[in-house]
Amino acid sequence: MRTVIIWMFILLSVPFLMAQKVFSQKELDAVLNPVLMEHAEEMLRFERMEINAGTLSEDDKPQVFTFTCTNVGKQKIVVTKISTTCGCTNAHIDSPVINPGEKAVIQLTYNPFGQPGTIYTRAFVYVSISEKKPIAALTISGKVTPSSALWRDYRYTMGHLKIRAKTINMGTVTATMHRRVERIACANAGNEPLKVSAVKGFLPEFLKLRTEPEVLEPGQEGLLMVELDGRKLSGQKGKKSFNVLLEGVSGRPSDRTIKINMDIK
């Protein structure tokens, strides 16, 4: 019975699978960057087609950007729809019917929350003259910094690196200990990928430092990991403290230093 059900599922799925279309890059580009109507500026002229929002924060309220246009043609223009490329952006036009010589205002409301990184959102304006090609493409660009509230559990800042502690206690370690790993939660609060390591000369050969993941993307949380190889502890005894200078983050040396404590038996 189970075999019959499986074969029935396969047979029913074949027409659906055959109907699936593999889109070419050209077709995908046509959706994301549709070609504008020919002679669009001779019909509807915008004072500006792109606005740079500058740098916003996820903590900011939704921002409203205004695009003003004028019907410079000889026939009435009816705006039928305005589609946006991101759910973070809503569009509104004050007057969808624009007679010759009249103006209309399109407002794009952009919500930065949940959008850390680069802003590049677009709105395509369609009119009754052509439902397939937009008459205009409006763009908002800029940057969004991650919410400060997201990092409230991270007490220390080293450039764009946020960490919850600046001291790692390895506890009691011995030469028979092949591997011990201690971790500190960390996060990248900047707009660029972050790769953190230890400056050469500050880390003894029996310790390794890295982040997991190795590269922290903007807004990404991770772990700052210190790994001990006990087999390389020969000749070491007693309580030890190592001040480790981090590389890949900005700030004064004292601001980007962590301490590693251990008791070697």
UniProtKB/TrEMBL annotation:
Any Pfam family hit: DUF1573
InterPro entries: DUF1573, Ig-like_fold
Protein name: DUF1573 domain-containing protein
Organism this protein belongs to: Phocaeicola plebeius
Classification lineage: Bacteria, Pseudomonadati, Bacteroidota, Bacteroidia, Bacteroidales
